[in-house]
Amino acid sequence: MEQTVKKKIGVRDIMTIAAMMVINFAIAMVIGMVTLPFPAVYLYGSAGIDAFIGATFYLVAANRINKHGLLFAWATVYGLIQGVMGYMFLVPYFLIVALIAELCMVGKNTYRSAVRNRIGWMVNSIGNFVGCAVPLWWSWDSYQEMAASSGFDANTLNMQLSMVTSPALMLLGVVITAVLAILGTLFGQRLLRKHFQKAGIVG
Questions:
Q1: pLDDT over 90 for what percent of the chain?
Q2: Which of 31, 45, 82, 158 lies at a C-alpha separation of 20 to 30 Å from 25?
Q3: How confident is the model over 43-71, as pLDDT tens digits?
Q4: How far apart are the C-alpha atoms of 26 and 96, rounded to whole Å?
Q5: What angle, 0 to 180 degrees and rounded to 10, lies between the N-to-C axes of helices 11-35 and 70-84?
Q6: Which DSSP state fits 38?
Q7: Within a 10 A sphere around the Cβ of 187, how many other Cβ atoms?
Q8: pTM (2 decimals)?
Q9: Where are the transmembrane segments (predicted)?
């Protein structure tokens, strides 16, 4: 019989989420550093590449925990990390992303549904991509200073400004991110069936 969703996330669940998020965030940092010298890839592809690779770790957590609140916690923690890094105004934004992503998972055993996980992860990933534009919309001058200190060159900043001020270019980034997020969940689901389930890591 299929395991039903328990109501509350416990300490062991939090540890599982934390472990998967640490791996995912570490990978995201590496992806950012590797793609930064290539502005077009960094701006339009880094969020999608992160979504593709991170999907497997998210699916491990989703299938192990199978409880509502996982995506909300995932997106909220990501927002808090951004806040600690100096972008405190992103915390409310990511709380909204967390709520929307979690609403995509309403229902019974949705965290073990391949389709619903695909939708929820895609929404979360799109939220991450759009979140890259929020600092520029919020305060371009302050963002310029912070970005320059992080290693951004003038060409990257100009391309980023062009992207966030063009609905068509933002839509392009959203589409790329969504496609890579979906492909990531398809790949991750296959890994779960072939390796993680056999190893007893997920049910």
A1: 46
A2: 158
A3: 999 999 999 999 999 999 998 888 899 99
A4: 24
A5: 50
A6: S
A7: 15
A8: 0.84
A9: 14-35, 119-140, 168-188
